[in-house]
Amino acid sequence: MLKALAEPIRLQLIEVLGNGERCVCELTSELGMAQSKLSFHLRVLKEAGLLNAREEGRWVYYSLKPEALQELRTWLGDLASRCTVPASPCC
């Protein structure tokens, strides 16, 4: 998931989808991106388990997977709670 999120364009997509489900046609105009480039980044995010895709007619609608975001949040929270543990004294 983190590898998929490492690309600034994909982070931008996540931010936009944080406001709710969007159609590919909306995303292309909102982000000013060619559909082929957008589709590549959406596929990466979907394969990483971060997005849902719903087909309606000839359009595909994308939304964030809340459970994937919760998984990241839990992992980061656990990491944050352990990162302040001081080192054991050296011999």
Q: Would you give an account of this structure?
A:
- 57% of the residues lie in helices and 15% in strands.
- It has a single domain (2-73), classed as Orthogonal Bundle (Arc Repressor Mutant, subunit A), CATH 1.10.10.
- The longest helix has 17 residues, at 66-82.
- It has 5 helices and 3 strands.
- The mean pLDDT is 93.
- It has a 3-stranded antiparallel sheet.
- The chain is of the alpha+beta class and 91 residues long.
Q: How would you write the strand order of the largest sheet?
A: 1-3-2
Number of strands: 3
**End-to-end span in angstroms?**
39 Å
Query: SSE string, helix = H, strand = E?
Result: HHEHHEEH
Average per-residue pLDDT, rounded, comes to 93
CATH class: Mainly Alpha
Described by strand count, sense and barrel closure, the largest sheet is: 3 strands, antiparallel
Cα shape: elongated
- Structural category is alpha+beta
Rounded Rg: 17 Å
- Per DSSP, what share of the residues sits in E-state strands of 2 or more residues? 15-25%
Helical amount: 55-70%
CATH fold-type name: Arc Repressor Mutant, subunit A
Question: How many helical elements?
Answer: 5
At the fourth level of CATH, the homologous superfamily is Winged helix-like DNA-binding domain superfamily/Winged helix DNA-binding domain
Give the tally of structural domains. 1
Query: If classified by CATH, what would the architecture be?
Result: Orthogonal Bundle
SSE inventory with pairings:
Blueprint: H1 2-5, H2 8-17, E1 22-23, H3 24-31, H4 35-47, E2 51-56, E3 59-64, H5 66-82
Antiparallel strand pairs: 1-3, 2-3
